Structure formats: structure tokens, C-alpha cells
């Protein structure tokens, strides 16, 4: 897996913007995540050094709030609803098929960073159960075979066949 090159100039700009401001850890983390798509560990160590906030405290904040990610995400987020209607309509089998197709488990990202898989409590599409969302596209009454075909199509469109 390739990693993003860390732009220290950009990180310094972010830290300078919040220098001396109390309670700025969350805005700093949000700005870093906006820049890199996640919170790289070496950047968090720079934040710790510059702000004087212990690294352990920074990691505590990043793991407490669901908005923060410590791992890079894929270009396409694949969400599978596991609400009641979807659960009784086969969400578990759907998730298993997607995991098999992508070669990853829930909350993981494919090695090529094309897909990140997330199980969610509800997508609000109960009448379409079971439901899979890929990026901004919702697929209702989604069978394991249909899901695999959709993901292969996305992969092909991205030139990642």
C-alpha cells in the first residue's frame, strides 16, 4: 500500500493558524484530516510537539470521536445497512459477500484504497432492504450477487480490474 507524502509546510501552516489558542486540538485535527484524508501518526506526533499536548491525549481524542480516522479511507465508501429490516432481509449475507469480493472486513480499506467497508445501523431505506450504498449511490433489494457485480463495475470504471 502506498502512503501519502506528508507535506510539512502544510502541516506547519495548520499548526501556526492555531498557535496559542486554547481548546484548538479538535480544529487542528479536523484541518489535518481535511488535508490528508486521515490522521497520520507522524503528523499527530508533530501536533503533540508543537502544542505540548501529550500524544496519548491526542490519540484519546482521535479514538473517542467517530469523525476522526487513523487509517486512510478508500475513494468509495461501501455502507451496508444492518438495521432491523435489512437484517431480516439478508444484510449479514450481503456483508459477507462484499467482504469476500473486496478481500476486507468491516471498517477496513482495500489495499489499492479504492473501497472502505462500513456496516451501519440504519440508512433510512427500510422499504428497499437490504441496502448497500457505494459513495452516493444507493442499491436496494441488493443480493450478494448484485453487490459483487456492482463492485466489479466500479472497479472496472476506475481502471482497477
Q: What does this 3D model show about the protein?
A:
With 161 residues, the chain is α+β, with helices and mostly antiparallel strands. The protein has 2 domains: 8-64, no CATH class; 76-157, 3-Layer(aba) Sandwich (Glutaredoxin). It is built from 7 helices and 4 strands. It has a 4-stranded mixed sheet with strand order 2-1-3-4, covered by helices on one side. α2 (25-36) runs antiparallel to α3. It is elongated and about 55 Å long. The relative contact order is 0.12. Residues 1-6 have low confidence and may be disordered.
Write the layout of secondary structure elements.
Layout: H1 8-17, H2 25-36, H3 41-51, H4 55-64, E1 76-81, H5 84-88, H6 91-102, E2 115-120, E3 132-134, E4 137-139, H7 144-157
Parallel strand pairs: 1-2
Antiparallel strand pairs: 1-3, 3-4
Amino acid at each position: 500500500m502506498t502512503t501519502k507524502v506528508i507535506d510539512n509546510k502544510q502541516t506547519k501552516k495548520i499548526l501556526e493558524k492555531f498557535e496559542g489558542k486554547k481548546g484548538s486540538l479538535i480544529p487542528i485535527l479536523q484541518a489535518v484530516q481535511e488535508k490528508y484524508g486521515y490522521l497520520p501518526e507522524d503528523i499527530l506526533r508533530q501536533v503533540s510537539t508543537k502544542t505540548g499536548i501529550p500524544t496519548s491525549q491526542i490519540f484519546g481524542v482521535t479514538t473517542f470521536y467517530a469523525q476522526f480516522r487513523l487509517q486512510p479511507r478508500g475513494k468509495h465508501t461501501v455502507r451496508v445497512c444492518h438495521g432491523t429490516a435489512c437484517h431480516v432481509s439478508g444484510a449479514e449475507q450481503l456483508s459477507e459477500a462484499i467482504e469476500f469480493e473486496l478481500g476486507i472486513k468491516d471498517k477496513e480499506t482495500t489495499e489499492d484504497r479504492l473501497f472502505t467497508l462500513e456496516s451501519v445501523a440504519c440508512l433510512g431505506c427500510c422499504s428497499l432492504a437490504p441496502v448497500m450504498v457505494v459513495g452516493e449511490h444507493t442499491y436496494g433489494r441488493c443480493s450478494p450477487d448484485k453487490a459483487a457485480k456492482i463492485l466489479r463495475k466500479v472497479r472496472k470504471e476506475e481502471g482497477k480490474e
